Amino acid sequence: MVTSAIDGDYLSTLAIAQPQSGKKRAELGQEDFLNLMITQFRNQDPFKPLDADAMLGQLAQFGTVAGLNEVKTQIESLSSSLLSDQSLQATALVGRNVLVASQQVVLQDAAGALGGVLVPAGAQLVTARILDGAGRLLDVVELGTPPPGMAHFAWDGIAADGTPAPPGAYIVQADAVVNGAATALETFAAAPVSSVSLGRAGEGLTLNLGGLGAYGFDAVREVFD
């Protein structure tokens, strides 16, 4: 929208009615812009009419601004629609499990702890280690030589010495032999979606995951029951 600071007295000299409200406006709208152009035509010197190119330039500028305003309105409408659709998708996740990048896995009562390791091409002897909060090794999950991509694993919550671990979050570390060298791999964890937080405009959605905390909706790698 074309706007410009303007004084009320100047509007009076152009025979343009000022707003009737007690508050003066500091900007011109599209209607005011058209009134200014019409007044300019009416008060032009008949012996020195407005240059045709300048007049066409003003009309083109007005058309461009009007078009941009319409595009802006359409984009805002589309954004609102997409956010609403995303909200419906996110709320449908409540009670389901999602896989997100994490250095911890969540041990649930009966389901154990589910996680994943992102395996690169050529990786061998992929291993996931489970540690407690103090960094003590509890168990080792051998994944062998899975194909490249996401390799899932499950830990039953029983430490290597046969002691059951209490439910909660545990540290997970993974590595493999890649091209003859030990290489750390990215780990993922599965956790239930306990609730969804709808952010303000432009902030997106947040999933609150049991045992892991808050994650952005775009952080979800997989969804499963």
For the biggest sheet, the summary is: 7 strands, antiparallel
Structural class: alpha+beta
- The number of helices is 3
**Total domain modules:** 2
Judging by the overall fold, what is the CATH architecture of the largest domain?
Sandwich
Q: Identify the CATH class of the largest domain.
A: Mainly Beta
Radius of gyration: 32 Å
| Cα separation of the termini | 50 Å
Strand content: 35-45%
Mean pLDDT level: 79
Q: Give the CA-based shape.
A: elongated
Q: Kindly state the number of beta strands.
A: 12
CATH domain fold name of the largest domain: Immunoglobulin-like
Task: Describe, in plain words, how this protein is organized in 3D.
This protein has 225 residues and is α+β, with helices and mostly antiparallel strands. It has two domains: 8-84, no CATH class; 100-191, Immunoglobulin-like (Sandwich), CATH 2.60.40.4070. It has helices spanning 8-13, 30-42, 52-91, and strands at 97-101, 104-107, 113-119, 123-131, 137-144, 149-155, 168-178, 181-185, 187-198, 205-209, 213-216, 222-224. The strands form two sheets. Strands 1, 3, 6, 9, 10, 11 and 12 form a seven-stranded antiparallel sheet that branches. Strands 2, 4, 5, 7 and 8 form a five-stranded antiparallel sheet that branches. Strand 9 and strand 10 (205-209) form a beta hairpin.
